[in-house]
Amino acid sequence: MNQLPRSTNIICISLGFVLLCSLVASASAEPDEHGSSRDGLAFTHDQLKRGERLFYGLIPLGEGARDCASCHNTHELDTLNWNPSAYDIAVTSHEKSLEEFTAVLLSPSGQMMSQVHQHYDLSEDDLALIKAYLEEVKQEGLTASKPALTKKFLFILAIALILAAITDLAVTRRLRFKFVHAVLILAGLFYIVDTTVREAIAIGRSPGYAPDQPIKFSHQIHAGQNKIDCLYCHNTAGHSKSAGIPAAAVCLNCHQLVVKEGTRSGSFEINKIIRAVENNEPIVWNRVYNLPDHVFFSHAQHVKVGQLECAECHGAVEEMHIIRQFNDLSMGWCVNCHRDTEVQFIDNAFYEKYEKLHRELSEGKRDRVSVEDIGGIECMKCHY
Length: 384
Hints:
Layout: H1 6-27, H2 45-56, H3 86-94, H4 98-106, H5 111-116, H6 124-140, H7 151-172, H8 178-201, H9 219-225, H10 230-233, H11 248-255, H12 268-278, H13 299-305, H14 311-314, H15 331-340, H16 355-362, H17 379-382
Helix pairs in contact: 2-6, 3-6, 7-8, 11-12
């Protein structure tokens, strides 16, 4: 009798081991207390698909009812959606039982949700399937947007064209006209050099940077519409290097007594603040402005002593929903500001020791004092 080759035996044993592991994993998948298994096996594929179709409104949720996905995005966005994403509500619904989840959907307490959810007509089974679909969203996250044509791809393409032109010129010689090789090589080199210089200059600079934040906070609403002074929230700017991030308790000064539900975001975002306080958990905001470690900068020196307005560095934040970096924070930008900015020199106790400059002002020898005049562009002032 012919024996199977040794490699075939090894493959058969490996396949048998993989099959055994998958059977053990399937048998160990037990539903959790919320009706969904740890890896989504409590519901069949068809049931989960029905939950997804319900969420997208492909199966009617009720006469005149709006589908969930029209408010709660399932894809990553580069614009502000005031409603929580599907992932956001998946995280909060994971902590709720089916009865609690049903109460939130069909009998919401918030004014905004009450208006949007008033036409829902869903069975208990369908609600369980929607919750099961949200469990899938929680595990997988939002669908990432397809990347656009990137500079990295174009950079690699330029290198490839140069190498192809050199190879054809020296070896294959398929192109008859030599000027084509020259054009490809020169164009590729120009793009590579130009990109390298631009990217090198841009290291550490990120104007327009606007990261997502853990809470959808709008400066346009707070600083613009409600006229809240910057220093009410960033209250350390007058006496510290940092402007500071307000504690959640500062937010609750208004949101616990005056405003309990946002006009655009409902109560979902405000409830994040309340939960953070109740659970004694910090709100981890993403920093927008960040100087290199070798640069010294003091908000107190600029805000209190220099008496600069916040907008001179941060732009018109009262017009921004999502805060973004306004200036590039380059050394040239700082130096030019120090050369052009007039110091608030009169009746300012901080500058009393500059007797010579005071005397020149009183004698009419100068009509202004700039930051440069008091050593504002000396290297050691910022690079200590």
